[in-house]
Design a protein that fits this description.
This protein has about 675 residues and is an alpha+beta fold. It is built from 21 helices and 14 strands. About 65% of the residues lie in helices and about 10% in strands. Strands 10-11-9-12-13-14 form a 6-stranded mixed sheet, with helices on both faces. The chain has a 4-stranded antiparallel sheet with strand order 6-5-8-7. Strand 5 and strand 6 form a beta hairpin. This is diguanylate cyclase.
Length: about 675
């Protein structure tokens, strides 16, 4: 907690900065301050002349049996205000200048006048150094600071009173009057500060402080790094002042006694005796006051530096705590960065796997391997969405499994993708500790989901990884969807959805090589819709398209999963049957022939299409051909033979007319 005396000093004992005074854009205030300062210097000269002309020096004041002498010197009053409100040099310059002009005007030699003019600034310097060493004592609202101000004023008065000796020596004054001048000097300095300066300071404290803040010219004087050195200098000056005062007083007494010793005039003895008695009394009084001033100054010094040391210790402790906290924070940041670095490495490996995946299953496999390594600090479950619209757990990690296989199989997920990220969908009762859901989507199709538990508090790396994981998953699944779409467009006919001719050639090449390697047969059907051109001409191309799509759908539903159906061109469809003998292929062809005749199709507007028939050519490997092109040519030739034989029938390659098969009713 900051002491009030320390905080208030920056307002009471601030120093007017000449740099700010000359640089700030406030010419009116700058001109006013400089004008008042010049007027104060001029007034100091006038008041100094008045003090000499009206003989305000060594005025006797009788207090009972004792007589004191007081010198009134008004320029010192003005100097004290400039010292305490503006700074040392603002007070020292007009004081020295006025004293020098005054001494020169009244006949003091210039070399002595230069030295004599330094006496009052010397006392002012002592006051300035004390308040600079202990700035908190400049708050005159505290009684102890008022006592210190009085003692400081006394010490400064005694220090500046050496000017009395310089004056007496330079003017060859009588030795008997020297004590009166000397006593009047320091007594007047002290009484002026107590009776005039101090009351004005107490009354004007608030106003002066507010005015200093409003101008912006004052620099707060806080304790500086050379405060201890300044304190030692002040202490040395106080001790030197006491020693100087003792030496001057003793020397004055010695000189007076020596002067009287060579004279037998009784009229000289009496003043000398009185002066010696007064000098001894003054010496004892001054030494007592100086010792009190030094003691009080020492107490203030001890209290001040104790507070400074306590504050320094508190600041050091606070700095150590802040430094320790910063070290811990940096260690945490370093650990988090290391964790992020490891996570980024794993993310890079996972990202490579995700982008190289050619199917949704490969993405699921990559996540099954990397998610437990990527997020080891929280519970997680990776589920796959099965064909029957159920969740199947692939892997889980962490201390506890969030859900079990039986619970996952019972969850029913909606078709709307906007609900797939809701935690309540997977934990409606809120007892499974599920806090975050990452759905794995391929377009608008849900292929899986990642369920995650609560994140460790303060760990931002996990949120960072989850954000990156979501982005990479979305990008990988989007790329997969695009690849699948491109693959679909590259291998399928856009009208019927059947494989196209290019895919047929690629597939037949590898499949025929496999059948040849294992010694297995393969059959190929080439199906052509009868009178398709007549259908297009009579009902339009839209009807022809509907006929193609209907027959293609029918064929796809009737063939095996290992068989493929391709649109070969126009109204021609090829069906490849791997590992099927000619006998079984013949049965499948007749089944298709009869089924298509019984097929009922409609246009997009709902109008029924006329009954359709097809002509089928069938070829077998290796009976009829030993290559892909030869097999297709054999089936094509058989198909044309079926058309030549009257359509709506099956013809086997290189067969005699008795092997022509037609459906009943033709």
């Amino acid at each position: 907690m900051t002491d009030f005396s320390v905080t208030s000093v920056s307002s009471q004992h601030d120093q007017l900065s000449m740099g700010l005074l000359l640089s700030r854009h406030n010419p009116k205030m700058r001109g006013l301050i400089l004008l008042i300062w010049a007027a104060s210097g001029f007034l100091s000269v006038i008041l100094g002349v008045a003090a000499v002309e009206y003989n305000w020096s060594a005025l006797p004041i009788d207090l009972g049996p004792h007589t004191f002498h007081v010198t009134l010197y008004p320029p010192l009053i003005l100097a004290m205000f400039w010292l305490l409100w503006f700074g040392f040099w603002w007070a020292a310059i007009p004081t020295w200048l006025s004293t020098f002009l005054l001494a020169s005007y009244y006949g003091m030699p210039y070399e002595w006048a230069l030295l004599f003019a330094c006496s009052d600034p010397l006392g002012l310097a002592l006051i300035a150094m004390i308040y600079r060493a202990q700035p908190h004592t400049a708050d005159f609202r505290r009684p102890s600071n008022i006592v210190l101000f009085i003692l400081i004023s006394f010490a400064a008065a005694v220090l500046s009173s050496i000017g009395a000796f310089i004056w007496s020596h330079a003017t060859q004054a009588d030795i008997t009057s020297l004590y009166e001048v000397w006593e009047g000097w320091w007594m007047g300095f002290l009484l002026q500060n107590i009776l005039v300066v101090l009351p004005v300071l107490l009354l004007s404290l608030t106003f002066i402080r507010r005015w200093q803040r409003s101008t912006g010219f004052w620099v707060a004087r806080q304790s500086s790094t050379d405060g201890l050195r300044m304190t030692l200098v002040v202490a040395a000056i106080l001790v030197s002042t006491a020693m100087l005062f003792t030496w001057l007083s003793t020397n004055l007494t010695k000189t007076a006694i020596s002067t009287a010793a060579y004279s037998r005039d009784p009229q000289l003895w009496q003043p000398v005796a009185d002066m010696v008695q007064d000098s001894v009394d003054a010496l004892m009084t001054v030494l007592l006051i100086l010792m009190s001033a030094m003691s009080l100054f020492g107490i203030f010094l001890f209290r001040y530096w104790s507070k400074r040391l306590t504050q320094s210790n508190q600041m050091l402790s606070r700095s150590n705590r802040l430094l320790s906290a910063e070290i811990r924070e940096r260690e945490n940041v370093q650990a988090e960065l290391q964790e992020r670095y490891q996570m980024l490495n794993l993310m890079a490996e996972l990202d490579s796997r995700l982008h190289s995946a050619s199917s949704a299953q490969e993405i699921i496999d990559a996540l099954t391997e990397y998610l437990p390594r990527q997020l080891p600090q929280l519970e997680g479950v990776l589920c796959r969405f099965t064909q029957d619209q159920r969740l199947e757990i692939l892997t889980h990690w962490g201390r506890h499994a969030l859900i079990g296989a039986h619970y996952a199989a019972q969850l029913e997920l909606p078709d709307e993708s906007e609900h797939w990220e809701q935690v309540s969908l997977y934990d409606p009762e809120g007892t499974r500790n599920i806090h975050r859901v990452l759905p794995l989507k391929s377009g608008r199709k849900l292929i899986g989901v990642v369920l995650l538990g609560a994140e460790p508090p303060g760990n931002t790396a996990i949120s960072f990884v989850l954000q990156m994981l979501s982005e990479h998953l979305s990008l990988a699944l989007t790329n997969l969807q695009l690849r699948e779409q491109l693959m679909q467009e590259a291998t399928h006919d856009p009208l019927t959805g059947l494989y196209n001719r290019r895919h047929l050639h690629n597939w037949l090449g590898s499949e025929l090589a496999r059948c040849n390697r294992h010694g297995r047969p393969m059959c190929l059907m080439l199906i052509d819709i009868d009178h398709f051109k007549r259908l297009n001409d009579s009902l339009g191309h839209e009807a022809g398209d509907e006929a193609l799509k209907g027959i293609a759908t029918f064929i796809t539903e009737r063939i095996r999963e290992s068989d493929i159906a391709c649109r070969f061109g126009g109204e021609e469809i090829v069906v490849a049957l791997p590992e099927a003998s000619l006998f079984h292929a013949q049965d499948r062809a007749l089944d298709l022939l009869q089924g298509i005749r019984q097929l009922t199709l409609c246009t997009s507007s709902g109008d029924p299409l006329p009954p359709l028939t097809v002509s089928i050519g069938l070829a077998a490997y290796p009976q009829h051909a030993d290559s892909v092109d030869a097999l297709i040519r054999a089936a094509d030739k058989a198909m044309y033979q079926a058309k030549s034989a009257g359509r709506n029938r099956l013809m086997i390659a290189d067969s005699s007319p008795k092997l022509v098969f037609s459906s009943p009713g033709t």
